[in-house]
Amino acid sequence: MNTASLARRTARCAIILGLGALLSTAALANAEEREWPRGHYPLPEYGNVIGEVYTVTVDEGQTLIDIARRHNVGYEEIRMANPDISLWAPFEGTEVTIPAQHILPDAPREGIVINLSELRLYYYSEPGVVETYPISVGRDGFATPVGITRTTVKVKDPAWSPPRSMREEAAARGDPPPAVVPPGPDNPLGRHAILLGLPSYLIHGTNMPDGVGMRASRGCIRMFPEDIESLYERVPSGTKVNILDQPFKAGWSEDGVLYAQSFPQLEENQGAFEPILNAIEVVTKAFGEEHPPVDYKRLRSLVENPDGLVVSLLRAAEPEPEPQPTPQSDGLYQELVDQDRLYQELAATRLR
Q1: pLDDT tens digits, residue range 100-153?
Q2: Which fold has domain 103-244?
Q3: What is the pTM of this model?
Q4: Which of 17, 44, 166, 249 counts the most CB atoms within 10 A of its CB?
Q5: Active site includes 13?
């Protein structure tokens, strides 16, 4: 797909959006007037990019973890978006990036969708609305399983029975835990739990909210206390839960721009697939039958240096002629040229 084709695609998108606006002026006006609660976004009718990146400044005594929780962001998200800022002692007045823009996972827009690599939960709670919240998932050795299940029983102020593996580990240290931890501030399940059809797996709160947004559990899905409380009150029993792992996502914005998001690959899945090839397949799928005018150097950098930020992948114009390599840089230069040629050939192959 050349620049002219992309322009035509963008123009078609604009025309469709314009007609939609004329046909649903009242609905759009109501949406604009609506005050969206924490984590709620209007579901885009065209494309699959929601939210936006913005910045805030550090107040006296704040940590990045405090800021993250206030702005519906998890530990790893805030860390990757602000790699040069101290998590626990940022200077007052420092500008902090809030990565509140997301590409919806490539999955049916229904029920709850959990993207493990992204450490984020999506809930399609009502027509035209999607909610998203940071989560913790199973750490290496206790991986949260991929698959489709459903919510079952909801429990308020649950008691917690430490699993056998934890009791054995604690006993080996000479510090055996109690058989049952009653509700209260020491209960790691927090005050609300939603059981899943997968035996022994729950979506629940936590008494250690600073760890939300990292791989920290023994397989369960942990949420900030205020987020699980909100879901607990509204998620019906029997709601579909789709647990998947998409470390690289691509999607279109409503104004016709192709974006991508890349996250660190889960340790247990490293080697299961080639990250670059997976990214190319995701991008070519987003384009359908058209050949994508993708900036492959940027795509490669995004995969090799994942930071969770939403980045445009489209080339703005036809590439300029490649400069001739100098003798000193011939080897490295040729390697980069060959890699870019390979990526483009692979992308073209997957469209045949």
Answers
A1: 999 999 999 999 999 999 999 999 999 999 999 999 999 888 899 999 999 999
A2: L,D-transpeptidase catalytic domain-like (2.40.440)
A3: 0.81
A4: 249
A5: no
